[in-house]
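Model: You mentioned two targets. I'll fold them one after the other.
Researcher: Yes, keep them separate.
Model: Target one:
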Amino acid sequence: MVFKCQEDSFLKQFKTKVVSSEFATLDWTSPQGEVQKLKGFQVVCEDTILFPEGGGQPCDYGTLGGFPVRNVQRKGTTAVHFVESPTSFEQDSEVLQQLDFPRRLDHMQQHSGQHLITALFDREFKYDTTSWSLGSSASYIQLSTPHLISRESLDLIERQANDLIREGREVSVVLVDPEVAQEFQDARAPRGLPKDHEGLARVVRIAGIESNMCCGTHVTNLSQLQCIKLLCAEKVKTNVLVHFVVGERVLQKLGEVFQREQQLTQALKGGPGQHLELVQKLQQNVKGSRKYFVQLLKDFATAEAERLEDLPKKERPKYFALHRRDGIEVDFINTFLRLAPAEGILYFLTVSEGVAAGSSAKGHLVLRGDPELVEKLGPQFVELLEGKGNGKEGSFQGKINNLARLQDCQDLLEAHFKPKKIVEAPSAAPPANGAELDKEE
């Protein structure tokens, strides 16, 4: 079946009749990325201007009878609308469908633009498009070639596409019988017809460029695409992804890039022409500072270890706990343990990324000492600190995700090493009134 949205992709509202309405729920992802459990009804109408998801194109949004349509799916020859409504719709009742046209226009621009880009890559380089993705901010086509496409080749296709847009080539949709070879001979059909397809097939034709079998909604003239920008090419295994934006998305992307450029100019204290040089200089400074900082940490670890080593054995603590929040630098722990006394002390060391002990932060933990005690405390510590770890032969290491309960770990240590109080049994009370106990003869 060809739906009304496929007959006229620019139709914004349409009256039709309800065929069926059944209660349903839907896990719906909002534009902000939140997943919501919606209650409503699955509604089938005699026809629809709301495109059901298919051909790589997401479904349309809009309203049905004034209530929001959150999803549209094709089932055979029908389109099923999920309508977020508190009440059902009566069979044979007339309802008004209204389309979220800005969303539709965006989808038409990206989809028709994809057809044009695909045709030009095929014409110029004989690269087949094996799939495409219409993303929320940018789209891509996957080309069947193992060779990364150069910027010069991208610019060539981009220039040709925009020349055709300025010419205003016509885009038309024709219905053909896929069983009749003569009618179908010039139509590309990369995906083939769905198994449940019935009747004639839709073929989208760009005048003088290509004919491509497609169920999606499209512009009627290339001039409605406004412009095309090929962003980059990315090699993925034996294929290449070409990322692109079309129409309103080009303007949106330009606005985003310009805003970031202004923010960088303010942060770097230099104009766009200096951005790369200034960032490279910052990277060099950070690299040098980091190297100096790591050396300071090693010096501190050495000093702490030597301080323990210099203590007389009888004055050395039974356990030693130390936390550093300078970053997850295991070199600090390794240096300390390499130089610290190896026997008689249980070491509990942690490092984290820039957050004070007692706060939520990721980090690294090491326990070293008496094997039996390490085996006992290690799993308890990583559980308290929401991490994972393992160990053997008196050494336990783990990655931790929350240092908020670090004090609880130290309390366990103190409880274990705290001297046990000796409680003496009370002596027998003397007899009342000084009387002596009877003795056995």
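Model: Target two:
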Amino acid sequence: MTFYISTVKELTMGHAAEISVFVSILIVNLIVMYCINQVQQSPYMDEIFHIRQAKHYCHGNFTVWDPMITTLPGLYLITVGILKPFILLLGVDTACSLAGLRLVNILFQAGTFYVLRAIYKTIHSTPQANNKEADKVALVTAITLTFFPLLHFFTFLYYTDPGSTFFVLLMYLFHLHGNKTLAAFMGGMSILFRQTNIVWVIFMAGLSAADVIQDWMNNHAHVKKKDKTQQAPLTDGQTFQSFLKLLFGDFKHAPQKLLGLIGCVIVQCLYYIIIMVLFGLFVHLNKGIVVGDRSQHEACLNFPQIFYFVSFTVLFLGPYMIRPSRIINFILFSVNHLTLTVGFLAISYALVNKYTYVHLYLISDNRHYTFYVWSKIYERLPQIRYALIPTYYYGIFSLLQTMKYKNVFWKLVFIICLCASTIPQKLLEFRYFILPYLLYRLNVRFMSWKELALEVLIYFTVNVFTIYMFIAKPFKWGDNVDLQRFMW
């Protein structure tokens, strides 16, 4: 009961100032949506399939399925649930018009704002913190991340990203509050929007397992015997070595303790495991993860996707990542760990050389910014992909330094899930980075108002540019009468 009361308090925010912020965000988004609807009065890009399918559902035709759609029907089912009262009052054609369907994502973004604030407060609240200052930081951070350019842009189109993001973040919030049942349910809802969200269900299960392992280590008989006050804090490597030592020690001398550990992990992850089993059953029956058109959604081992994500994150989090002191520390680290540095550069060179994939969409569709990133940088200067490897190294170093306060198990779980969500993707698509970016960013500690202000400036500048380009700079494809627009 305490959990539900605290969650309601988090999600309803009774303070007048916070409500004013929420209303202001809503007004800004409605104005932007109005401007976009004025210039783009027909479905654009993937909206063509999504809106056509949603209208079938609005009319009660739940047996019709557009073969071009590759995701499950979560967006359309939720849309019908949200718009049903308006369908009854205004009629299907009005309620499920282009503007009406796009408005659904405005509602998702409104919910995402509240959830972002609640998550940030939950992660970073401490007994020693100044509550008023912490509330301000959480509020401003939530506002900032609500306007994260990739997510913000697709709020104004009828795409799956806002709903997918909302349910994954809601799953994370319930997980942080210890309600694994609701967390798993929200994870299941997120999969109905995008199948790859199973990775983030696994992420929550991994975090649960990590907590169990950490408690097991702290309470292990061999650890208890040590005088911890005489020891410096363990590094990530030492912690992991200690875990392996205790694990194999129990395996050899006390297997019953190991079985107890496994049992605890299963109990704590049970609801997530149920979702994973159901998902596995779906994949088996569907003969694959993709529904509909699979021709352009083949999995591969595109290892450089990790490097693209790192670059993407460092650029958007530049105030936190690119700091003179951090650069100096990186240089010293690289020199002092020369073997590791040379090994990273060599392995990265091999991965870039052997596993760089270029999807047909990437080089053939000049409506997307990734087309210009690839054609103007990677394709025009083929050696640049190798020259950038040292910057990837710095980016990985900086990301890990920013998460230094997290334990090694959290980092391992995040890295594994990040790899699982990005590497199999053949297409370089920035939208795939939204969830790992937000989950990472929510765990970044507040440094000062200066960094946060610079982050706001970056987001604001990118949003103004991309929305302006979409509205004011349309172009034509040869004899095609339809106007084309720039988008992520």
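Researcher: Noted. Anything on target two?
Model: The first helix runs from residue 2 to 12.
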